[in-house]
Design a protein that fits this description.
Main location: membrane
Radius of gyration: 21 Å
CATH class: Alpha Beta
GO molecular function, one term: glycosyltransferase activity
Number of helices: 11
Subcellular location: Membrane
InterPro entries: BC10-like (IPR044174), Glyco_trans_14 (IPR003406)
Structural class: alpha/beta
Helix content: 25-40%
Order of helices and strands: HHEHEEHEEHEHEHHHEEHEH
Number of strands: 10
Membrane topology: Single-pass type II membrane protein
Shape: globular
Largest sheet: 5 strands, mixed
CATH topology: Spore Coat Polysaccharide Biosynthesis Protein SpsA, Chain A
Number of domains: 1
């Protein structure tokens, strides 16, 4: 019969070997990554700890707001530069302090400055790169921090530094929380018939996604979403699909946009009926260059542009739009009260 000291030694040895194996797996995968895959084993372990804390917290279990307390929207800003449109967003939020939180994941290489009066919260962030799974990590990091920060965050809207609102805050809040049910839908674009789907699936290697993700289960969509809390918790708890999506793209880096694949595939597999299948962020891909959409310049800003960007083929108007050039801020501020925030 084992003594308690022998049992304790064996357990410690098992845990140590498990941790070493995990670190070796991460390190091996990291060393085979391309230059854009900048996730380190230390960063991944730090994220795993954060995700575990958030998914097991009491905040993660509350799917409805407390009596006499309005539900909140967590706005998640992902940026690698300054928030040019901060004045427009500040005006958008004004007067609604009890119904939102705003979090910023800013690339550590850039120091973002916020006015002392700002209600935006900078979260601890890590380096990100385009065409890299580091963007998935950043988005999951934002979700986890928002879940931990406020249990009344029941919707999570991911936006970029180039996004602007197309409606008033009240319009958006009322449309999201119009139903009293806590089974709110997520607005995540989920596409199964995208023309470049085969190339995107095979970007990490022909069979790299198997057996966890079959080609017929692979989906793509917009990076930007408005996600219900139950799905946000699902995302930060997930491990199996992440092991595939964190792999570097080796065959076709031009088709490698992991953040446009991971969330649609995961939610399609886990709760397709709970998702709208469309995004609430309008983007114009006409004449795109280098994977970047059309960027609206100062000369394009007008009441007519805002009204046209709102229109969609779904039951809801678009809530947000991108991309806007920094020079367009002045024109947007001039029409904010009379056009953008007047529904």
């Amino acid at each position: 019969m084992f003594s308690s000291s022998t049992l304790l030694y064996s357990l410690s040895l098992f845990l140590s070997l498990s941790l070493i194996s995990f670190l070796l797996f991460l390190s091996s995968s990291h060393h085979h990554n391309n230059n854009n895959n900048i996730l380190s084993p230390a960063d991944e372990l730090d994220d795993l700890s954060l995700f575990h804390r958030a998914s097991s917290s009491s905040s993660s279990r509350r799917l409805i707001s407390l009596p006499h307390t309005p539900p909140k929207i967590a706005f998640l800003f992902l940026t690698n530069s300054d928030l040019t449109f901060l004045p427009l967003w500040e005006r958008f939020f004004q007067g609604h302090e009890d119904r939102y939180n705003a979090y910023i994941h800013s690339d550590p290489s850039f120091t973002i400055s916020l006015p002392s009066s700002s209600t935006f919260k900078l979260i601890p962030s890590k380096k990100t790169a385009r065409a890299s799974p580091s963007l998935i990590s950043a988005e999951r990091r934002l979700l986890a921090r928002a879940i931990l920060d406020d249990p009344n965050n029941l919707y999570f809207a991911l936006v970029s530094q180039h996004c602007v609102p197309l409606h008033s805050f009240s319009y958006i809040h009322n449309h999201l929380f119009g139903s009293q049910s806590h089974h709110h839908r997520s607005f995540v674009e989920i596409l199964a018939d995208e023309p470049f789907l085969p190339r995107r699936y095979a970007a990490r290697g022909v069979d790299a996604m198997m057996p966890e993700i079959r080609y017929e289960d692979f989906r793509v969509g917009s990076q930007f979403f408005v996600m219900a809390k139950r799905h946000a918790v699902m995302v930060i708890r997930e491990r199996k699909l992440w092991r595939k999506f964190r792999l570097p793209c080796v065959d076709d880096e031009a088709s490698c946009y992991p953040e446009e694949h991971y969330f649609p595939t995961l939610l399609s597999l886990e709760d397709r009926e709970g998702c709208s299948g469309f995004t609430l962020t309008r983007v114009d891909w006409t004449g795109s260059v280098g994977g970047h959409p059309h960027a609206y310049g100062a000369e394009e800003v007008s009441p007519g542009l805002i009204r046209s960007l709102r229109r969609s083929n779904s039951s809801l108007d678009y809530f947000f739009a991108r991309k806007f050039e920094p020079e367009s801020l002045r024109g947007l501020m001039e029409i904010a009260d009379d056009v953008i925030f007047r529904d």
